[in-house]
Prior knowledge:
Shape: elongated
Protein name: F-box domain containing protein
Structural class: alpha/beta
Order of helices and strands: HHHEHEHEHEHEHHEHEHEH
Oligomer: single chain
Pfam family, one: F-box-like
CATH superfamily: Ribonuclease Inhibitor
Amino acid sequence: MVSSSTEVSPAESPPEERRDWLELPRDVAASIFTRLGAIEILTSVQMVCKAWLEICRDPLMWRAIDMRNDDGPDLDFDLEKMCRDAVDRSCGELVDINIEYFGTDELLRYITDRSNQIKRLRLASCYEVSDEGLIHAIEKLPLLEELDLTLCSFSAEPLNALGRSGPHLKSLKLNCQAYRLSNVFPHEELDFNKDVIAIGKNLPGLCHLQLIGNSMTNIGLEAILDGCTNLESLDLRRCININLKGNLGKKCAEIKHLRLPNDSLEDTMDLLLILRMVY
């Protein structure tokens, strides 16, 4: 008996279906766009087609403006002009804005004069914004709940202004460059604690406080613990001049979410910026 076999060729896989992104429903496209940064929307997305341009002009697209800039200060765009354009498109609906590596007092005034509903403001490496510019912004934003000042050069004065004009503030991030202090006289030590002393004095309602890289000593930490009695989270990573032994450490341990000076920064959203700090 002769057996015969036939070679069966593998079935051809159906051609891959190609998705035409231009045919996405408007609400789906808008949802995707809101996950992008403002720079990408203004320089790329809105130029794809007329339909996408119309979506990008919708004020609801600009309730949150993220001028996140991973390329740093060397990005070849007029970021201040782009930010003003984004603010104009929000038509007063803006509630959340993030600015990195650029910004001036004039820009901050432009934003706050047109957007008094802002609840979250983040400034990162905005060295051209002065104390006066930030104070003016604080006074114009009565609904502010979250303030993030990362790698900026402000004195304690804006923190005093928060006590007068920021009744709803619940979260403050004041992330700095860490400096190790040595052979400091008592009157000099106060200078390194002015900002955190101002926090303890003026912001008793704070729930969340992040102080990565702050140069404060135990004097400043005690002022925070005594003044901010509602703290639910306290981030002391890279605060290299404090000593948490004894009663001070015990008081810190009572806070529900506590990050210690030597804890890792890996879970920090602002990792790219904060890793540039000097330890």
